[in-house]
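Q: Start with the shorter request: fold the first protein.
A: Done. Sequence, then structure:
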Amino acid sequence: MQVRDLVGIHPQKQEGLFYAGFSVVSGRASPSQLRGLTALADRHGSGRLRTTVAQNIAVLDVPVGRIQALADDARALGLAVDGSPFQRGMLSCTGSEFCKLALTKTKALSIRLAADLTERLPGFGDDIKVHLAGCPNSCGQHWIADVGLQGVRLMHDGEEVDGFDVFFGGGVGQHANFAKRVGYRTPATHLADDLERLFRAFTSSRNGDETFRTWSARQPVAAIKTILAGAAEVSA
């Protein structure tokens, strides 16, 4: 699967210049981080910055001799030119925090989810896209994610809570495909457990270095639903 997040150090067309792409989980950075990054762009590059479709940010026109200093200074701000697959591949819409159409919160949840999965699955090395959308309008692009999560409202333990309808198997580029609806809905508080089961099932049953997209393409929807549900399912 082609990585399209632009995270890392990459050469530009201009000889001797590079751009540094920083992983910003779900595109949420603090004002101090953004001010610090603009200062670093002035110090180590030409001052030019670019945002990406994967909700990350890149500093342009960095001479080869300034790359390491830029990476070190940015790491002190809490921004890195690497990151786990879950940090790099997590994307979300703005959610109900700022959108009147969204049914659920997404931003803070996606950031916690990336951190939880990184801690639970430290050896996970496959490129993965997990996209959260707060409603069916799909500003979070859940239809073209390896795992898409569409916000819904659920009854759980006698109260109405944020939940997500799970999709899987979407992607762009080579072998592009829309994700399939699994038919499984889960409370937001259960997402980390459910996705941990899914990714552990992938790593234990993949063929060689098979990618998640290839693995998911050969999985029956019923099998994915069973993995996600674990011992019990939650009714909508």
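Q: Next, the second protein, separately.
A: Sequence, then structure:
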Amino acid sequence: MKIISSSFSHINLLKRTEKLAVKDWAKALPLDDILKSDPKKIATYDDLVKDVAQILHRNRNLTLYYRGQSNDYKSEGKTTILPSIYRKKEDEKKLMLKERFELLNEKVIGLKKIFRESPIKYAGTNLLNKYEEISWSLLQHYEICQTPLLDLTHSLHVACSFAFDKNQGNTGVIYVLGMPWQMDAIGYNTFEELVNIRLLSVCPPKAQRPFFQEGYLAGHFPNYQLDNPKKVDQFDFARRLIAKFEIPMKSDKFWGVGFGRIPESKLYQKMDPIKMICEQLK
């Protein structure tokens, strides 16, 4: 995917408090500076919304998406945001990248077979045969296997709730990513070399999780040499990073009046029929 060369970021917001002239704090910053920086500390959800509003206003050529997680993971001093299939985990069986993609392909074939042979014909499943990315989306979203897609959301509220999810630390991180504008359910952008999938539009209506999570899944486009280890850096969504914020996990004051963390039972709908189908592949 293409790199965002520079943008107005959380660093600009930090500089703004130093009483500098606008020309000194509002200038777009190189991506490297953003990746190496620490997240901006945020005390409340209201403060986060206000800061993101400033970033959105000054990056109007992009659509903002959000991702909440427990830590700001770095490699060689720079933030890295890799899709699951490219991540290295110490406690996981070490498969070569090509083997991971072979496993993914097996799961795609199995998923199509299950829906094809199901006595219940779910609306929207015919799209699985037309767009491989939709099969990947379901497998990723329901945590069946690793894929070259990254979970994102259009909702800052959802992203913050995910930063809290299973987080045993004192803080969480919110990433703000800049993506091209898109008009369709699946946005293939040849210039930026990105695909972005709006789950609410492509998943079967019986799939409940995507609706509660306002979920999107994004990846590199075209699907060319995705299993080549030498090209993994090109698939890192840190290339699209605009800003990052650190939010407190232990403070009751973060959410404030009128807002609160979306319960786990809502984010992960247990009685989701599509989840039950996908889990047959585990």
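Q: Describe the second briefly.
A: The mean pLDDT is 90. The chain has one domain: 6-80+148-271.
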